[in-house]
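Predict structure. Input: MBL fold metallo-hydrolase, 237 residues.
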Amino acid sequence: MKLAPHLHRIGNDIVAAYLVVTDDGVTVVDAALPGHWKDLVRELEGLGLSPADVKGVVLTHGDSDHIGFAERLRRDHGVPVYVHEADARRARTGEKPKVSTGPMKLGPTLGFFAYAARKRAMPTAYVSEVVEVHDGDVLDLPGAPVIVGMPGHSPGSIAVHVPVADAVFVGDALTTRHVLTGREGMQPAPFTDDPAEALASLDRLAGLQASWVLPGHGAPWKGSPADIATAVRAGAA
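Output follows.
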């Protein structure tokens, strides 16, 4: 789905990944679930492109519903996979602490896990080799993605700011649709390691210039990053 010039989404409001498309090739932000591979190929073919045109995958963090087809791109097409150093082990092995899921409703929770099953969430395809990134890095990839450290959901959670796409990709730093309750609107994401730290990290988005705020779960949000922290904290309350 084309959202704007240079900006495409695959998946849906349950689980999504994004493509930054430029004349220099494609940067993929997050890799959703393994079964989204066909969605990726279909979206690329619609643009007259193929996986060979993908120059890199940038993961907002190392959780299983964000690394989906990353290893397939790396293994079969030589595409480097970038992740913050603090989440590198998580992306390679799945090692993570057990955290509270928070509120749940039966229907949305079953819907989330059923969708994940259809998209072959299990077994998880961990990423054998990653390129570690750090807060403030500007990657030599299409769109020149800027790494913004956003610890909280996980130690290595990041936002990815891509000025050419007028977008900031926030992963699970927030959600606009809670996968376990179905509640819509700006709010904290479930399965967060350190909720207080995650809320504090939102202030780091305030200085970014973008019209699109793009979470890993929920509808894309059009608005200023300067308003994010206030909106999410209101949603938390």
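The first helix runs from residue 37 to 46.
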